[in-house]
Description:
single chain, mainly alpha, BirA Bifunctional Protein, domain 2, two-stranded antiparallel sheet, 5 strands, globular, disordered C terminus
Amino acid sequence: xxxxxxxxxxxxxxxxxxxxxxxxVEILAERLLPSDFQSLMLEVYSRSSSxxxxxxxxxxxxxxxxxxxxxxxxxxxxxxxxxxxxxLPDRYVPLELAPLxxxxxxxxxxxxxxxxxxxxxxxxxxxxxxxxxxxxxxAVRRRSMIRGNDAREAVLLAASHRLTRAQAFKGPRVWAHFxxxxxxxxGRDDECTxxxxxxxxxxxxxxxxxxxDPCRHRERDEGEAGGERPHxxxxxxxxxxxxxxxxxxxxxxxxxxxxxxxxAIR
Length: 266
């Protein structure tokens, strides 16, 4: 971590030196109003995009891991969602979340480093954990219920959403974006006790029906002829298991991300 911090400081020092503004980061992050910063960045993005040629755009599309299509068969993902919604307890309300959420959703709600999130313009970031977004939505609905003196029941929400993570991991089956099912319950302990049991029942039922050996890859890679298509249950288990295994290497991922910050986005 100390090495990563030193690298970041050296990178920022170089940028400020070349820009001729010693306190550039402080000016942008602390002295400007959020609305002014957004206006500034919109102009920066506009000027930057105007310099991109069609060939350069294609090159970026080929090499930027954040924009590469998923290798998962969308027909299988639909089947996975269908299975998940069938197993969902009745009282849960399914939501189709926006692709963006407020800036700081992950670093504030879950205390995750903002460097692991793809920050966007207009005070937003790309959703990196749908559970955090569901927690915000639960809080909004719960507050509305309390104001209306109708807070006797827990708020139960669920979402199947494609997440994007900024960590740079290596491996043939590690992706910058993947789909995940999230459940969130909000309320007092006495209101959520039964829902915790429902959570356990749903999890046990899902585990019983969604089985796969992570070491047995029956799906075929794109471009290969033949091969057996995976069952939707296998896709869900394999994708989640391997993604979580990669996220356990957080220290290395953060280091790689920081080191790459001084070069082209890959």
